[in-house]
Amino acid sequence: MKTNSDGKTARSQSYLLFRLARVALVLATLAAVAGCQTESSQFVAAPPAATNSIRPVIPEAVIANSSTATNNPAAFTLREGDILRISFPGSPNLNNVQPIRPDGKINLPLVGEVQAAKMTPSALQQKLMDLYAPQLTTKEVTVEVQSFAFPVYVTGAVLRPGKISTDHLLTALEAVMEAGGPDYNRANLKDVKVIRQEGGRTKNYILDLKRVMEGKTAEPFYLKPADIIYVPEKFSWF
């Protein structure tokens, strides 16, 4: 009887140890899964920070905030009809004023025709320094945009919708004012849209011009040639 009792006790202990091992395995598996979930949640992207006066239209708009190159006047490219003043401090006899022709080129002494359209002024300046390097004792060239060929279009709830032609950079608010200003009885200045052709695509930018009109701090949104500014009407049930 003693042998049988010892055998039953041994079997009971073995079974208990087996059950405890299974429980430990299950707990370890659950802990590992919970650990993986916690780690992966760290990579969930936080929502983008809101900007003061410019917010993107999803999915068409690319601009994220007003500090990008899109809103930097220095990043604007030259186009046909722009007039350039080109100066050579070390060789003033080469100084001249050149319009960019419809084919996008300018014609310069000693080097002939040079492609200028679709370049930034700083890029053209560097290109001319390279082209004139053999002729210059002082390696310095300055490219200044004397006037722009700059048409933009304003439509919607403004007093004089239509095309605006200017020879200098414009902000969206300035363009609206050039169009006679907003029709305050109808205009929704919180959702003014700028429609732009960029990189072969149509991109939309939404501007809160009401904030600017109220005197609150906001960075200006500079337009590009051929931009369309649309001032929508306020929503009304009647």
Write the layout of secondary structure elements.
Blueprint: H1 2-41, E1 54-56, E2 83-87, E3 96-99, E4 105-108, E5 112-115, H2 121-132, E6 142-147, E7 150-156, E8 162-166, H3 172-178, E9 192-198, E10 201-207, H4 209-213, E11 228-231
Parallel strand pairs: 7-11
Antiparallel strand pairs: 1-10, 2-3, 2-6, 4-5, 7-8, 9-10, 9-11
Morphology: flat
CATH topology tier name of the largest domain: Outer membrane lipoprotein wza fold like
Secondary structure category: alpha+beta
What's the tally of helices?
4
How does this structure look, described?
It is a single chain. The chain has three domains: 1-44; 54-73 and 150-231, Outer membrane lipoprotein wza fold like; 80-147, wza like fold. The protein has helices spanning 2-41, 121-132, 172-178, 209-213, and strands spanning 54-56, 83-87, 96-99, 105-108, 112-115, 142-147, 150-156, 162-166, 192-198, 201-207, 228-231. The protein contains four helices and eleven strands. A hairpin with an 8-residue loop joins strand 2 and strand 3 (96-99). It has 238 residues and is of the alpha+beta class. The strands form three sheets. A six-stranded mixed sheet has the order 1-10-9-11-7-8, with helices on one face. The protein starts with a helix and ends in a 7-residue tail after the last strand.
